[in-house]
Amino acid sequence: MGEQALAKSRHRFLVVSLFYFLLFAYPLLSLLWRRSYPFFSVEVAILFLILAVFGILLAVIFENIRPAIANVLSPLLITIAFMLQFNLLLQGLLACFSVSLLVAWWSGSNFQRYGLPILLMLMVGAYFDSFEDSGELHSAGGTTSVNSELPPVVHILFDSFIGIDGLPPYPASEILAELSYTFFEDYDFHLFPRAYSRYAATGDSLYAALNFKNDGDSKFVIEVALRRQHVVSENAVFGTMEELGYGLSVYQTGYLDFCQSNPVPMERCWQYPQPNMGSIRSVGEIKLKLRMMLKVLVSQSTLASDLVVSNRWLLDQGVAYHDPRVFESLENDLLSESSGKYYFAHVLLPHGPFAFMNDCSIDYESPLWARYAALDGEPVQDDEIYEIRTMRYFEQVECAMTSMGQIFESMKAAGIYEKSIIVVHGDHGSRIGKFRPEYKNLALLTPAEYRANFSTLFAVKFPGGEGKVDNRVLPLSTLLEEFSATVEAEVTGQGEAVFMKTLPDSADKVDLFVFLSGTYPMHRVDINIFED
Fold first, then answer.
1. If 195 and its partner were Cys, which of 11, 188, 392, 458 is the partner (CB 3.0–4.6 Å)?
2. What is the pLDDT of residues 114-166, one digit of tens each?
3. pTM, to two decimals
4. Are 231 and 125 in the same domain?
């Protein structure tokens, strides 16, 4: 081989290596920029070193395979990288592969050389896009006039927060129950220890509860099957606030979209992603950090997550979902401007993985299995396993109350707590149990299993109210319907603003039932989950 040919070969080898290094560095870099993860860290350096070696290995492979094979392999690799970056589903994958295949056959051996500047431009675009990716989806987009004389309404939804009377019979449950009673009494809440959801999944529960519905039809089952985004397109609670003249501010996860429910009066929509990549910085072991970062990267793609769902080494790394910034953002907005505003925050506490301690510090030293309510496909475990998981879950319950208390104290210091209307509730129970709440497990579900899945928190505070406990068994949909009616009576003065005034006064006057998934419509079970 002549000297000129050798130089040309080396140049091509360098271009191919660089192209494939940058191709797979692209989704990783974009993720780091968007999540504000420290670029100069040991774990990031190791990941880029791995990608550099991977790029060199691919260059070696491309030097020794037939052009026809190379023209298929290149589009395949591009499709995989773009799947991670853009969360491409099946149609997107086919379109990406087809276009890349046509370009590869047209450009031949120059494919990587032509593609390199395009890839670099995409990376530059991702860098600048990261500055705007602050979580704001809508800002000052409402045209409805806000009535500044209305008292602020704070609506905090805690994901997977079990109700007090749903707690399992462990010694620590008595301590947590006493702590909860004291907390809500001190802050003048009307507490319902026997509140429950009729659904064990977030999407089903919230869509029904926020619209005061109680049926077995589930739009979310269809959305999961069709790979659609979960959107709460109807929201009766939001509608009530809109009619009263409130400006709406929403703090939501990337999983369930509330901002499209009532977009006209939406003043702010702040969205935070999950898992919480920033929490990985608390991990001491480099190997575990790398595995957690790979989990977050892969979880950007629905299809990639599904394809490797059985690989627990990669996916089940217990990365926390909760992001403390949701409390910080809510508190800052409340203290800056509260009158005439309705604040709705979806908080992923005490939702697993259970990584937060009672003081909201992060602990990743626990075993992986202890940070999950359940692992997919696992057999029934010893009772000791469920108790350990429950203790980790209790730590996150205490973190949730600690965070609430900080906001309430800030509101008191600012002089807005007493006049505020506040409701806090869960969407379902802890879901720590031996059997999933599915129709196929109907004969195996005990009352304790039903409580673990369906019992949930509900507490409300109105101006001038006092702390008290209400032991009626009431579904979440009924409680939120009454809450909306009471808010209307409170702010319009057209009725007696006594919360729960129109509710049944005994369980005998309420249809008590829950729904199990696994059938369509969902299977109804008539049961009082608080009776053994």
1. 458
2. 999 999 999 999 998 887 666 666 544 454 567 878 999 999 999 999 999 99
3. 0.92
4. no
DSSP string, 36-57: T--SSSHHHHHHHHHHHHHHHH
Amino acid residing at 355: A
- Sign for the CA dihedral angle at 488, 491, 493, 498 comes to positive
Within a 13 Å sphere around the CA of 294, how many CA atoms are in the beta-carbon half? 19
**What per-residue string of b and e applies to 253-282 under the rule 16 or more CB within 10 Å gives b?**
bebbbbbbbbeebbbbbbbbbbbbbbbbee
Q: Are strands 458-461 and 190-191 parallel, antiparallel or unpaired?
A: antiparallel
Q: What's the whole-number mean pLDDT along residues 210-221? A: 87
Q: Which two tokens stand for residue 357?
A: 């301690």
Q: Which two tokens stand for residue 228?
A: 């659609």
CATH at residue 199: 3.40.720.10
Return d(Cα 124, Cα 99) in angstroms, integer: 22
For 21-52, b/e burial (b = at least 16 CB within 10 A) is bbbbbbbbbbbbbbbebeeeeebbeebbeebe
> Is the distance from CB of 138 to CB of 261 less than 8 angstroms?
no
Look up tokens 């006493």; give the residue: 178
**Number of helices followed by number of strands (H, E) in the chain:** 16, 15
Counted domains in the chain? 2
Q: Tell whether 447 and 500 lie within a shared domain.
A: yes
Q: Which tens digits make up the pLDDT trace of 16-71? A: 999 999 999 999 999 999 999 998 899 999 999 999 999 999 999 998 999 999 99
Q: Are 177 and 205 in contact (CB under 8 A)?
A: no
Burial code (b: 16+ CB inside 10 Å, e: under 16) for 210-245 equals bbbebebebbbbeeeeeeeebbbeebbbbbbbbebb
76 and 216 both lie in a single domain: no
Q: Residues 44, 185: one domain? A: no
Residue 446, CA distances (Å) to 169, 170, 360 in order = 14, 17, 33
Residues 454 and 204: their CA atoms lie apart, in Å, by: 12
